[in-house]
Amino acid sequence: MNYQEQFFDLIYTLPAVLLAIILHECAHGLMSVWLGDDTPRRQGRLSLNPLHHIDPMGVLCLAVFKIGWAKPVQVDPRRYRNGKRGMVLVALAGPITNFLLAFLACLIYTLLWKHWFFLGTGRMVEAVYYILLNIISVNLGLGVFNLIPIPPLDGSKVLGAVLPERYYFGYMRYERYGTYVLIGLIMLENVLNIDLLPIGGLCNWLLDGMLKVSIRFFGL
After folding, report:
1. Are 15 and 131 in contact, with CB atoms under 8 Å apart?
2. 67 has a pLDDT exceeding 60
3. d(CA 84, CA 92)
4. 5-26 burial, b for 16+ CB within 10 Å, e for fewer?
5. For a surface tag, which of 149, 185, 207, 220 has the fewest beta carbons within 10 Å of its beta carbon?
6. To 10 degrees, the CA torsion angle through 149, 151, 157, 160?
7. pLDDT for 132-189, tens place per residue?
8. Burial of 116 from C-beta contacts in 10 A (0-12 / 13-18 / 19+)
């Protein structure tokens, strides 16, 4: 890939990355507020400003490898009626939002594909297709990746909420090492070209299902 292709790939990927991260984190914050905790609102985490949500290393991994993470939303589960259930709902709100975004982009992509001959094959149409494909792949990657039970990912919050208390504190003791573990696993996967994390297979399975639903929905 030459420098021009790399530049256009970045242009097509960046909107998808920002959209995925902003709505992922806003979903966490909105769910927490809905459950009775206004911490995300007070800390500005309901904002559409990407600077409020970006974790530099997580965004770099998301742009390069299509899997990554954002700055975690701080919440106070003591304000929920049921703390453990509330943490599970807050943690799952982000990935579910990403899956919904990917499905919406898949529907739009399928609709455009159905009317391909009417739209033509101009540069603008091609750009829209690439952006939609990146929205699908980035959101699937972010959603699936965040369900892995390694801190600070959302999966760790779900696992922590269902673990017995005697195991919870031992599990969370290693939270500060989670980011380094994730970076190491991502780098190792790409260097050795092996699947240490079940990201690709799950994303392909979800994409296949979304495409089938979209095609059937439009009667193609």
Report:
1. yes
2. yes
3. 12
4. eeeeeeebbbebbbbbbbbbbb
5. 220
6. 80
7. 999 999 899 889 988 988 888 899 888 888 888 777 777 777 777 777 787 787 777 6
8. exposed
Torsion (CA) 89, 172, 50, 141 in degrees, nearest 10: -70
Tokens of 195: 């699947």
Q: Which residue has the tokens 């699937």?
A: 140
Report residue 218 CA to chain centroid gap. 26
How many Cα neighbours within 13 Å face the side chain of 4?
0
pTM, two decimal places: 0.86
Q: For the CA atoms of 182, 184, 187, 189, what is the dihedral angle to 10 degrees?
A: -80
| Cα end-to-end span (Å), the chain | 34
Q: What angle do CA 141, 145, 151 make, to 5 degrees?
A: 150
Burial of 190 (0-12, 13-18, 19+ CB in 10 A): exposed
Beta carbons of 125 and 119 less than 8 angstroms apart = yes
DSSP state of 72: P
Q: Could you tell me the residue range of the domain that residue 100 belongs to? A: 3-217
Give the DSSP letter string of 111-172. Answer: HHHHTHHHH-S-HHHHHHHHHHHHHHHHHHHHHHHTTSSSTTSHHHHHHHHHS-HHHHHHHH
Domains of the chain: total:
1
| Phi, then psi, of 134 in degrees rounded to 5 | -70, -35
